[in-house]
């Protein structure tokens, strides 16, 4: 256990030339350069162009190909990807020879993908084949282009700087083998020696399980965690463009936030549930079961150790982070629900069928309310199915926000009552509040327009004031 496995996200990758001089090489020389396996995401914005925009949903190549009645839409989208890839590597590469090789790499991969999609379209003009049956594989093919490009470019850059870097492509490009994720990783790393070379590994890995099927765009962290587990890493490190802090510094102020420094996987899971992923929950589970600690650092402050995430309990009760998420409250009211069984499972079946993510839920004698992360369009379909299932029920949905106080141990802190008082002191009202018996988070439901002031009020009361009391006691 002498090496680390380190992941660099897409936003940071767009400044990989800066990271080359600091995080990746810095003052290291000789053998000190090695003992590190780097897993890279695609350059910022590339995956959005390949699939669809993560936030706006604007169609990329995949969405255009899936819905196109003609060739023009997805061909033009693929041309935009090619242009964006070339622009991305020209922004970070200096040597003309490296740029020429990167250009050729992009041309080869884009041409190969284009020919593959043309052949697939042609094949599906025959009645025996359905395009819908091949869309998952198409999504995986396209997604892998981004990571392969960024890994290849990073390898060129490091080799130019004198580092013995090796491009490790897990994307299965022109590979006939149908192998598992573990077999894919083991096969690619078989002859790699991290002690004498620096492997630059694609965040996407083609495998029989189909990472996109379960994890969609969270696949790179799954690859990263499995690589750390299989190679017996000393530590798994995720380099982000910010520190894992007690709140969004843009919201509560740079001077008010605290870097976490240390937390555990319980907190990481809660953050994932609230849309503030330190790491994908399934990736965290892999590391946890393998006994590999996770560290989250700021890629542009390489001298700072960041935040260590492991299985250790807290030294004492403490609120560590306050964060929020816009949601919908989906409410099913049915007078006949009292004493009856099956309502919960029926609602869950419908939400699962529409692929709606449940963040939390509450219920009483005749009402079940699910707080869900969904688009309004999908939610309307859910409502329609619920009304069909329960014609006498009243089904409503409401835009709300959830603000949560999270920590490894909240015992004895009266977070629920203190939080409600803090909101009231700032003239804010909670629609609802929930605290489970496991003392790791307290959830406050508020109107959407007050989410940000609610986060500031709770952070001030539960973290900043607590820090001041501790200083006075010391």
UniProtKB/TrEMBL annotation:
GO terms for cellular component: cytosol. Keywords: ATP-binding, Kinase, Nucleotide-binding, Transferase. The keyword Nucleotide-binding applies. Pfam families: AA_kinase. Its EC number is 2.7.2.4. It comes from the Bacteria. GO terms for biological process: homoserine biosynthetic process; lysine biosynthetic process via diaminopimelate. Transmembrane segments: none annotated. It catalyses: L-aspartate + ATP = 4-phospho-L-aspartate + ADP. One of its GO terms (molecular function) is aspartate kinase activity. Residues 4-298 form the Aspartate/glutamate/uridylate kinase domain. Belongs to the aspartokinase family. This is aspartate kinase. The lineage of its organism: Bacteria, Pseudomonadati, Pseudomonadota, Alphaproteobacteria, Rhodobacterales.
């Amino acid at each position: 256990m002498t090496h680390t496995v380190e992941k660099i996200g897409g936003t940071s990758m767009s400044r990989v030339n800066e990271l080359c001089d600091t995080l990746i090489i810095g003052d290291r020389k000789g053998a000190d350069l090695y003992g590190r396996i780097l897993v890279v995401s695609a350059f910022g914005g590339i995956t959005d162009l390949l699939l669809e925009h993560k936030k706006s949903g604007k169609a990329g190549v995949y969405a255009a190909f899936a819905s196109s009645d003609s060739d023009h839409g997805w061909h033009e989208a693929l041309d935009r990807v090619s242009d964006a890839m070339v622009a991305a590597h020209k922004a970070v590469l200096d040597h003309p020879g490296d740029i020429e090789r990167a250009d050729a790499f992009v041309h080869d991969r884009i041409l190969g993908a284009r020919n593959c999609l043309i052949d697939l379209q042609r094949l599906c003009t025959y009645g025996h084949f359905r395009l819908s049956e091949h869309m998952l594989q198409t999504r995986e093919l396209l997604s892998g282009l981004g990571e392969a490009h960024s890994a290849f470019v990073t390898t060129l850059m490091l080799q130019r700087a004198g580092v013995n870097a090796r491009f490790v492509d897990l994307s299965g490009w022109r590979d006939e083998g149908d192998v598992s994720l573990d077999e894919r990783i083991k096969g690619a790393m078989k002859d790699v020696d991290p002690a004498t070379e620096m492997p630059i590994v694609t965040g996407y890995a083609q495998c029989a399980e189909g990472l996109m099927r379960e994890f969609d765009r969270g696949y790179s962290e799954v690859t990263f965690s499995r690589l750390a587990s299989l190679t017996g890493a000393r530590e798994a490190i995720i380099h982000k463009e910010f520190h894992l802090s007690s709140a969004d510094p843009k919201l509560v102020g740079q001077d008010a936030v605290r870097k976490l420094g240390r937390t555990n996987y319980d907190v990481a899971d809660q953050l994932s549930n609230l849309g503030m992923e330190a790491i994908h929950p399934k990736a965290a589970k892999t590391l946890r079961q393998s006994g590999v600690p996770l560290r989250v650092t700021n890629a542009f402050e390489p001298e700072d150790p960041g935040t260590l995430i492991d299985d250790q309990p807290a030294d004492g009760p403490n609120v560590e982070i306050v964060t929020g998420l816009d949601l919908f409250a989906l409410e099913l009211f049915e007078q006949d629900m009292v004493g009856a069984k099956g309502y919960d499972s029926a609602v869950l079946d419908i939400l699962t069928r529409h692929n709606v993510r449940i963040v939390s839920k509450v219920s009483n004698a005749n009402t079940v309310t699910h707080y869900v992360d969904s688009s309004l369009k999908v939610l309307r379909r859910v409502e329609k199915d619920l009304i069909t299932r329960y014609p006498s029920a009243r089904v409503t949905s409401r835009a709300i926000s959830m603000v949560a106080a999270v920590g490894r141990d909240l015992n004895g802190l009266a977070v629920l009552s203190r939080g409600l008082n803090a909101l009231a002191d700032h003239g804010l009202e909670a629609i609802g509040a929930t605290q489970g018996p496991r003392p790791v988070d307290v959830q406050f439901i508020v109107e959407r327009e007050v989410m940000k002031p609610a986060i500031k009020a709770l952070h001030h009361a539960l973290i900043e004031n607590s820090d001041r009391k501790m200083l006075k006691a010391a």
